[in-house]
Amino acid sequence: MHTFNLRHLFHLLRFQIILTGLAALLPLCSHAQFQNMADHDDKPYYFGITLGYNNANFKLFHSPQFLQSDSVAVVEPYGGKGFNMGLLGNLRLNRRFDLRFNPNLIFAEKNLKYVHKPDSSTQIKYIESGLLRFPLQVKFKSDRVGNFRVYTLAGLKMDYDLSANSHSRQQDDLVKLKRTDFGYEAGFGFEFYFPNFIFSPEIKLSNGFGNIYIPNKSNAYSNVIGKLLSRMIVISIHLEG
């Protein structure tokens, strides 16, 4: 039984809503007659909040036991949806570059799909995670045009899985994951300047460097896996002051 149902929460932050919001904001910013928050770009630092949606997955490598398995015909990643919330701190380095710290609390699903022998029955193993993410990013900014700007970013991140020691994760029939994960992030976004805040939609990739799989050779679901690497697409909205 799931401790929380991400599918019911997902409808609050659908991708279509974000796109509709962008379509409504573009004409508003492009036809602006004056520049909002004109002195903002000279601030040495500023803060904000983050809300977002994520689609998490694995990159899976099979173990040598996979070909010898008499119970598992197929095991493959099966993506799950989730959401994230966090804080944002931005330090101005120069006209083009900022240093950004964006810690997040992330609720995610990274699931596995199994097809069993000999009847080809299908089973989904749900692996729910509550992650504390600590990313440090470098942000490269374009010139500001009126009340609009484009930026790209890249950096490193550390994830700490708060669910690693939960009772449900310790069940013998589940694939177990390591508590910490290190990786990289890269993406792009847009800044829309309003009179009192900046609205910044953003999309990025957040991928792990190392293997987060904990082997359990006595588990038929686990021993067919050799390595798991985390993969995530994150769509966020930043509200910055």
What does this structure look like?
The protein is mainly β and 241 residues long. The protein has one domain: Porin. The protein is 9% helix and 56% strand. It is built from 2 helices and 12 strands, in the order H-H-E-E-E-E-E-E-E-E-E-E-E-E. It has helices at 6-10, 15-30; strands at residues 45-62, 72-92, 97-101, 104-116, 122-125, 128-141, 148-161, 176-177, 180-193, 198-208, 213-214, 225-240. Strands 1, 2, 3, 4, 5, 6, 7, 9, 10 and 12 form a 10-stranded antiparallel β-sheet that branches. The protein has a two-stranded antiparallel sheet with strand order 8-11. The radius of gyration is 21 Å and the shape is elongated. 24% of the residues are buried.
Brief overview, please?
The chain is mostly beta strands and 241 residues long. It has one domain: Porin. It is built from two helices and twelve strands.
Proportion of residues in extended strands: over 45%
Instruction: Give the CATH level 1 class.
Output: Mainly Beta
Query: Helix and strand succession?
Result: HHEEEEEEEEEEEE
Looking at how many chains there are and whether they match, the oligomeric state comes to single chain
| CATH architecture field | Beta Barrel
Could you name the ranges where pLDDT drops below 50 across 5 or more consecutive residues? Answer: 6-12
